[in-house]
Structures are given as structure tokens and as C-alpha cells.
């Protein structure tokens, strides 16, 4: 199928599909005319990519995980390399959550102090 067809079937823009190709996540073949041709399974692959991106994974991790992903649901073969990559990404997200929580708590303290100062005057 063409990039336009894949875009319609997957809901991803042609620009995003080209980005996925640049990142090594999609591998279309080129026809004699130079146009990209995608296999029918590419719709499922795009769904997996989008799901993994929505989970906060970077494209480097997705490139590792994608060969073990099956179907449009988040189903991945339990090979040790993939489990390690997923655990690493979860740890990275946990650290970001801790940092964001600290930032939010700091902002809360400033808001409370500022609100209290306004009502003292």
C-alpha cells in the first residue's frame, strides 16, 4: 500500500510515517518509481509504535521492542532484552515523576505563601 493508504488506515499523517521510517521503526520497500510501498501489516506496526510512544518510550527503545510486538494490543514476547529495556524505561519515567512531584510541591508552597501574604495586607 502507498503512504497515503497507510496514513488513512492507521490515522498517522504521512509526515509521521516518514519520521517513523527515519527512526528505523517502519521499513517500506521502494518501487521502481521510487515510491514507498508498505505491507498490510504496517497498519498494525503503526498502532504498536503509537501505543509505545503514548507510553512515553523513546524511539530508540521502541526500535528494540518492536520486533517482539504483536497485534495492535500491547503484547510483547517476553525476551530478556525487551524486559530489560521496558524496566529501564519504567525507571526513567519513575524518576521523571519524582522530579515533577517535587516541582509541583515547590509551586504549591509558593502559591500558599503568596496567597497568605495577599490576605495579611
From TrEMBL:
Domain HTH merR-type intervals: 1-68
Source organism, top-level taxon: Bacteria
SUPFAM superfamilies: Putative DNA-binding domain
UniProt keywords, alphabetically: DNA-binding
GO molecular function, one term: DNA binding
InterPro entries membership: DNA-bd_dom_put_sf, MerR-type_HTH_dom, MerR_fam
Keyword DNA-binding tagged: yes
Presence of the UniProt keyword Endoplasmic reticulum in the record: no
Name used for this protein in its record: MerR family transcriptional regulator
Amino acid at each position: 500500500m502507498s503512504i497515503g493508504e497507510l496514513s488513512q488506515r492507521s490515522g498517522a499523517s504521512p509526515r509521521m510515517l516518514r519520521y517513523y521510517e527515519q527512526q528505523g521503526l517502519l521499513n517500506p520497500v521502494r518501487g521502481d518509481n521510487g515510491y514507498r510501498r508498505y505491507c498490510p501489516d504496517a497498519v498494525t506496526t503503526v498502532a504498536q509504535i503509537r501505543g509505545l510512544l503514548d507510553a512515553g518510550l523513546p524511539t530508540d527503545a521502541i526500535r528494540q521492542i518492536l520486533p517482539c510486538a504483536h497485534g495492535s494490543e500491547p503484547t510483547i514476547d517476553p525476551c530478556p532484552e525487551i524486559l530489560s529495556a521496558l524496566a529501564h524505561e519504567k525507571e526513567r519515567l519513575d524518576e521523571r515523576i519524582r522530579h515533577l512531584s517535587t516541582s509541583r510541591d515547590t509551586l504549591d508552597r509558593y502559591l500558599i505563601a503568596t496567597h497568605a501574604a495577599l490576605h495579611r495586607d
